[in-house]
Amino acid sequence: MESKPGLIEVTRKLCLLALFGFVAITLAGPILAVLFVVLSFALVGFLFWLPIQTLVLRKDAGLRAGLEKGREVAHRGLQIAGGVWGGTVRLGRDLHEGLRGTVSFVGAVLLEGLSGALVGVLLVSVCWPGQAPPTAGGLAALLGALTGVLVVLSRRRPARDALVEQSPEGVN
């Protein structure tokens, strides 16, 4: 039969874990700082070492092939990225122009329709105060809204080119 750990043993283990956690958190900052400083110096050293090795030792046949391949891959990647970017910009511009025209048209229809409906209701209420049948206001609003929509549609239709006769030269 196993015995359960006593309160003192559990407290000791808990305090030991708390101490390990405190030390880890306290030393994590300085350890990471030293690690980043060492890696930064190593990177700078590598950036100086690489050209010196290629210029002094002239063992650059494989390096040149690798650099050329890297240049080709980067060039192709930039071409693809440029094509995607250009296509996205063109698509956005086309969608913006189409949406702008549609929103303009819908806004004009709503404005003229609501204005016509309001005028229709006001005409019924001013011309026949209290004497109009209950459906007259709704019918007047509908007719006013339809009239407003017709106004918008008549404005949106392209104007026909007027035939202008030009007089022959010299004739006034």
Features:
172 residues; mainly alpha; 3 helices
Would you give an account of this structure?
With 172 residues, the protein is mostly helical. Helices cover 81% and strands 0% of the residues. The relative contact order is 0.05.
Give a short synopsis of this structure.
This protein is mostly helical and 172 residues long. It has helices at residues 7-57, 61-127, 136-156. Helix 2 (61-127) packs across helix 3.
Furnish the topology, listing elements before pairings.
Elements: H1 7-57, H2 61-127, H3 136-156
Helix pairs in contact: 2-3
Secondary-structure element series: HHH
Distance between the termini: 129 Å
| Shape verdict | flat
How many individual helices? 3
The overall strand count is 0
Q: Poorly predicted ranges (pLDDT <50, ≥5 residues)?
A: none
**What integer is the average pLDDT?**
80
Radius of gyration: 41 Å
Portion in beta strands: under 5%
Share of helix, binned: over 70%
> Main beta sheet, described?
none
**Category from helices, strands and their pairing:** mainly alpha
